[in-house]
Prior knowledge:
Elements: H1 6-15, E1 20-24, E2 28-29, H2 69-72, H3 75-83, E3 86-89, E4 96-101, H4 104-113, E5 118-121, E6 126-131, E7 137-141, E8 144-147, E9 153-154, E10 164-165, H5 168-173, H6 204-219, H7 225-240, H8 248-260, H9 265-279
Parallel strand pairs: 6-10
Antiparallel strand pairs: 1-2, 1-3, 3-9, 4-6, 4-8, 5-6, 7-8
Helix pairs in contact: 6-7, 6-8, 7-9
Amino acid sequence: MSTPSLVDTALSLAASRVPVLPLRRGKIPFGNCPTCAGNACGGRPNMKTPGPCSCPGVCHAWAAATTERFVITSPPWLAAWDRAVCVGYHPGGAGLTVVDVDDADAIAWARTALPATLTVLTTRGEHWIYRGAMMSRNGVRPGVDIKSLMAYARWLGNGTGVMAALPDAVRALAVKEPSTDRRAPHSLPAPLRGHGGDCPHRTPAYLERGIAMAVQRITDARSAVHATVYRTFLAVLSTHGRCGCLTDTHVARLFTAAQAKGESPRHCTDAWNNARTTLGL
């Protein structure tokens, strides 16, 4: 039985709704064409959804990944497949997360720290694949990278085991502490004049309910995540931002929820500061 070609493999994955792209030597995507160089074409909005831009070529790395048969078999893509060495895919676009464990020590850690799931052998280690998407991040611990949204992975076969749901233990690996630079102070200013006395928002149930609702709103977002994060930050600050009742812990919960939806720490910081500026805080 002959070995399937890269195109055959790509078409099979695409039929299963896994966005694919060709990878060249070094297991890296093809570079932008001259028309798209320097993002002159405008790229893709937010660069968070798989699929080609208006350029017919294989542009924009992971964001070029597609499930469209007519794209995969178009002349520009066939030319790229001729030069490719393997098939890549966009895990986040398929609703998946790949924990890339790259050496023996990392494998030993994963086997004790993470729930069992579908596992695929790599050149140096293993890919642990979970059902569910999240933000990607490299170097979450020695020898461990997370590849999901806005990232690509090499297709290495079906692997062994049964795919498990994405666990909190993996999500927690990718959550960075909110930035503490001068542009992103997380301790809000002292209460404004006219807000003396006990702060009504310090009632534990009231404040907790507000933060929990804000976290849930972000978590439930299925589209326009960045806009939802900004509007949620704006709502929280409009209610709690002038009395000083918010703590670093509250802000960290909001940032953690946003990062779990794929927002970067920079986006969280910008959205928080923009909301403060809008409210004059």
